[in-house]
Specification:
This protein is of the alpha/beta class and about 550 residues long. Strands 1, 2, 3, 4, 5, 6, 11, 12, 13, 14, 15 and 16 form a twelve-stranded mixed beta sheet that branches. Helix 9 packs across helix 10.
């Protein structure tokens, strides 16, 4: 934080002419605000000198405009905030990376200091306290204590949900378990199923049941209703005893093992694999590795589907502010003490990318207004964090994010083989989300530049989660663009030529996936003598805290 701030200040001091010009613009706006304040004191209300950006909802309540003192305080804050942020982005002679880092940290500090975040400068909080005779403050204090007890500002109530009871309830059996994961095989819901199974690799930084929330939102249930034999990996929540677990182990003892178990249970030589977020990056790495490891035509994966996946980390979005040598060295030291990266630390990093909507909104409504957090399944899942083993996570951040080695032919040696994404020849269906700030869609599109097989690309509306957890509903809530993707095609040209549809992309995916899933036949047994049922879905690993 301090380095980027100091660099920015020194850069401006080295350009006094530009600094004077910028300060003059600020002085003019403050002078205009003084005139505006004088008119407000006389009862004359005119156009605001500075208004919130359209996406800024902190000052939407009428008190912020109707009461002169709060209106003026709001505009003072907005003028200074907008000016400082503009100055950071306009910093002369500074690298783009340093500018992004300085803008990120200054934005977080400025958002934290907003008058809406404090009781005595928030007219809505004071009004509610008066209307409830202080009850809102008592409830807000209780919310604060509960958040402190849980170590995070809650986005959702935690009392209304329980995994296995009203989340992750699709029937199935755990058919394999090792130190890294449980493999869940779901019970078919139709008599005839496609014979080639689907194996889903969810992100190991979250729990898998985001794809099996409530029955209406469950992708798992949807796949079963479509007649697809469905498996999913449930990653273990690692502790200090697994600090030395490597990325290679996740591929060999994780993905490779899951694919081979699914083949054995289904009696099929291949499966259709699905990877989500970092699970997709793992799948792409495994596919490149398997092209070297399975050289006799016995590769167990027939096709690959990628959800919100990056393989080219050159411009990974706002998360890039955390990726520099000094930060990674500090993070390595922190993980060396515990053996893992705590899920709450990771979750807070992602929330800081959108602090007003993901942090301060819940502070204001919970602590100042005394509102009980609503029960929202996706937000509950987002709070149900997992850890990452130190060795694996450090390797992943440095090799993928810092050095971007995944896209460089033979730059990485994984489980004994140098890998090259261009050796991936399986047909690919890739989905990105238009408003995704974790895996920006234009960067996700670059997946198509490195794979050799046929590729179909989909751009869904919404973000990293709701762009994927996007079941068909009537009337349709979302839309998508879809078209084949060519190597070296730009995302802009692809979107211009793509077909636009209202509704969910899930149906389009089925039209692509079912012809690759074999003929319809009798549903296989959920378990077998070789792989007996070890317990009911959702298993035991997903319940570990």
């Amino acid at each position: 934080m301090s380095r980027s701030a100091i660099h920015t200040q020194l850069a401006w001091l080295c350009h006094p002419a530009q600094l004077a010009e910028s300060n003059a613009r600020l002085a003019q706006k403050l002078f205009n605000l003084q005139q505006y304040a004088a008119r407000r004191c006389l009862g004359v209300k005119g156009p605001e000198v500075e208004s919130p950006h359209p996406e800024d909802t902190r000052f939407v309540e009428a008190e912020w405009s109707d009461t002169a003192s709060f209106d003026i305080a709001k505009q003072w804050y907005l003028i200074l905030t907008h000016h400082l942020q503009d100055m950071v982005y306009e910093t002369p002679g500074q690298s783009a990376r340093t500018t992004r880092q300085a803008a990120f940290w200054s934005r977080n500090w400025l958002n934290a200091l907003a008058p809406s975040n404090f009781f005595w400068s928030n007219p809505v909080a004071m009004r509610r306290a008066a209307e409830t005779n202080g009850e809102s403050l008592r409830l807000g204090w209780q919310n604060f204590l509960e958040d402190a007890r849980q170590g995070a500002v809650r986005m959702s109530s935690t009392n209304e949900f329980k995994v296995g009871e009203n989340l992750g309830t699709t029937p199935g059996k755990v058919v394999f378990r090792n130190a890294l994961f449980e493999l869940i095989h779901y019970t078919p819901t139709v008599k005839a199923v496609h014979q080639v199974p689907v194996v889903i690799v969810p992100p190991c930084i979250n729990k898998f049941y985001v794809l099996d929330l409530t029955p209406k939102k469950s992708m798992i249930r949807y796949l079963l209703e479509q007649g697809l034999d469905t498996y999913i990996i449930s990653w273990r929540n690692p502790g200090a005893d697994q600090s030395g677990t490597t990325f290679d182990q996740y591929l060999q003892d994780g993905l490779d093992q899951a694919f081979r178990v699914a083949c054995a249970l289904s009696g099929q030589p291949q499966v259709n694999a699905v990877g989500y977020c970092i699970g997709g990056a793992m799948l792409a790495t495994w596919l490149a590795w398997s092209s070297q490891h399975y050289t006799n035509g016995d590769n167990p994966v027939a096709s690959a589907t990628f959800f919100a996946t990056l393989v080219d980390y050159h411009s990974p979005g706002d998360i890039e502010v955390f990726i520099d040598p000094a930060t990674l060295d500090w993070l390595d030291g922190k993980m060396a003490e515990t053996g893992y990266l705590d899920g709450k630390d990771m979750a807070m990093s992602f929330r800081m990318l959108r602090p007003n909507s993901l942090i301060w909104h819940y502070v204001v409504h919970g602590w100042l207004y005394g509102e009980k957090p609503s029960a929202f399944d996706v937000l509950y899942w987002n709070m149900d964090t997992t850890r990452m083993p130190a060795t694996m996570h450090s390797w992943y951040l440095r090799q993928f994010y810092q050095h971007n080695n995944l896209i460089k032919p033979n730059a990485l040696t994984v489980a004994g083989h140098p890998i090259n994404l261009e050796t991936i020849s399986q047909p690919v269906y890739a989905v990105a989300a238009e408003d995704d700030h974790i895996a920006p869609w234009k960067q996700s599109f670059r997946l198509n530049h490195f794979l050799s097989g046929d590729k179909r690309f989909v751009l869904s509306t919404s973000g990293h989660i709701l762009g994927i957890v996007n079941p068909p509903v009537n009337p349709p809530k979302r839309a998508f663009w879809v078209a084949p993707a060519e190597r070296h095609q730009s995302p802009e040209h692809w979107k211009q030529a793509a077909e636009h549809h209202q509704g969910s992309w899930w149906d389009d995916w089925m039209q692509w996936l079912k012809p690759r899933s074999g003929a319809l036949g009798k549903a296989p047994s959920v378990s077998s003598r070789q792989y007996p049922a070890l317990g009911d879905a959702p298993g035991s690993y997903v319940l570990e805290s």
